[in-house]
Design a protein that fits this description.
Blueprint lengths: L3 E3 L15 H24 L9 E5 L2 E7 L2 H4 L4 E11 L6 H13 L6 E8 L5 E7 L2 H8 L2 H14 E12 L9 E9 L7 E6 L3 H6 L1
Parallel strand pairs: 1-9
Antiparallel strand pairs: 2-3, 3-5, 4-6, 4-7, 5-6, 7-8, 8-9
Length: 213
């Protein structure tokens, strides 16, 4: 089934997770994670942070996590790509299988040298947001088709999530730069009807520009 194509200003009334009003919330969360990552990189330069070793802490009882995978590239890159994940989970289900899959996916980053960092934060409603920085669009596609990621998306997401939205974009100037992140495209999945997954995509820039990233 081909995804439904949404215009930059279109929302689907019966699927509130597609509301364009959510961009403000999602961007705020992603910007906060970027600032935490910048702080983590400063610690790395001071030899307090080790590549591939998770750094975890709590803020108001909510968990935060950063994994820097390619610090030597991340600190010097003038342009990086961004993936932002927001999922609405079935919170009554034990999330242990998701945590196990997440561990496998992170371990697999060593096979995808274009993945530069992975950040996650627990949100006030009990859901999680993830931020991944990588150095080229083709890296994202290879990673998405990897065994661990593909299995999680195919087998676990329909069980543990009601809805998912994923933003793809860029960070001009890279992590050290002062430019704001730019979202090119958002993809949506609705798993609430087990027999039929609803999908949609929204291009926020002209298609040729988005594909160039």
């Amino acid at each position: 089934m081909e995804p439904i194509v949404l215009s930059p200003t279109e929302s689907v009334p019966r699927r509130p997770f597609t509301s364009i009003a959510l961009y403000a919330h999602d961007l705020d969360v992603l910007r906060t994670m970027l600032e935490e990552l910048r702080y983590g990189m400063a610690k790395l330069i001071a030899s307090d942070l080790i590549a591939f070793v998770p750094q975890e802490w709590d803020v108001d009882g909510r968990r935060h996590r950063i994994i820097v995978t390619r610090p030597e590239v991340l600190k010097d890159s003038s342009y990086v790509c961004v993936v932002g994940f927001f999922g609405q989970r079935h919170l009554h289900l034990d999330g242990a299988p998701l945590e196990e899959a997440n561990t496998e996916i992170v371990l697999e980053f060593r096979q995808h040298l274009g993945i530069l960092s992975y950040s996650s934060v627990e949100l006030p409603d009990g859901n999680w947001a993830n931020l991944i920085l990588h150095d080229a669009p083709e890296v994202r596609e290879r990673w998405r088709s990897s065994e661990s990621h593909a299995r999680a998306a195919r087998e676990l997401s329909p069980i543990f999530y009601r809805t998912v939205r994923i933003h793809n974009g860029v960070l001009p100037g890279g992590l050290p730069g002062g430019a704001d992140l730019e979202i090119d495209r958002t993809k949506y999945w609705d798993f609430r009807r087990k027999t039929r997954v609803w999908q949609a995509v929204r291009e926020l820039r002209p298609t040729e520009t988005a594909l160039a990233h």
